[in-house]
Amino acid sequence: MIMAKNFLLASLLLVSMAVPTAVRAAAEFGGDLQAQILYAYQTEDGNGLASVIQNLSAQVKDDPTDPALRYQLAHAQYRMGLIAGEHREHQAESALTDCIADTKAILQQDVKSVEAMALQSACYSSLAEHEKLEGLLWRSRAADRLEEALALAPRNPRVVFLSAMNALARSKKDSAEHQAAFRQLELAAQLFEGSSATAIDAPGWGHAEAYLALGRELMLRGDRLAARNWIEKSLIVAPEYKAAQRQESLLASP
After folding, report:
1. What share of the chain is helix, strand, coil (3-state, %, to 5)?
2. CATH architecture label of 154-254
């Protein structure tokens, strides 16, 4: 009886030790995937991003109920949509449509997934740039997702950043709305400064983009010194970020 009890306790101990190890391994895997996706996007490596998408698509097919895997796939698809842009419009539309479908699947499992809402909003906004006839519908859906996400997590840096960028895009320069959007972008940059860009167990993207976006806005306002500060911060976070490198070169020119 005593031996059986000791065996049971030893078995439970082994299981309790194995679970955190499995969780850590999954978290590290997620962090590595995020790093691959961001590096491919920042270096504008479409082939590298396509390879990540292919691998993730196969994994999601094997395990369609894993929301973390599906989120990584949706994130990679979003980045592909941005890289493809106007030069490969059909590819961009396809990737962004897939992103929306995958984030929908996540939200069917968890209707309050703020990160899925934010990512889906970004994909809707980007898709609106390509599908002009349905642009108003996609922008409306993007706004709805962001409104839901802001209500649930008003200080999530990605949500605040995406909301600011949407507001800047649709408001007139020098208007009160544009000023409010600029202040929201400043808040997003501050929130990103206080959050991890290297989290392995949760989405941690957006830092370099927010810093670059704020640098661009400051440059448009004629504040080159402050613009340089934020663009350099973007490059500290992502040294190979080509868009930030180009912006830095513009600052260097007279």
Report:
1. 80, 0, 20
2. Alpha Horseshoe (1.25)
Name residue 55's amino acid.
N
What architecture does CATH give domain 28-136? Alpha Horseshoe (1.25)
Least confident among 14-23, 31-40, 92-101, 221-230: 14-23
pLDDT score at 39: 96
What percent of the chain has pLDDT above 90? 76
Distances (CA, A) of 146 to 98, 157, 169, 198: 19, 12, 15, 24
Task: Look up residue 84 and give its two tokens.
Answer: 């493809």
What global pTM score does this model have? 0.86
Q: What is d(CA 238, CA 225) in angstroms, rounded to the nearest whole number? A: 20
**165 contact partners, CB below 8 Å, separation of at least 6:** 185, 213
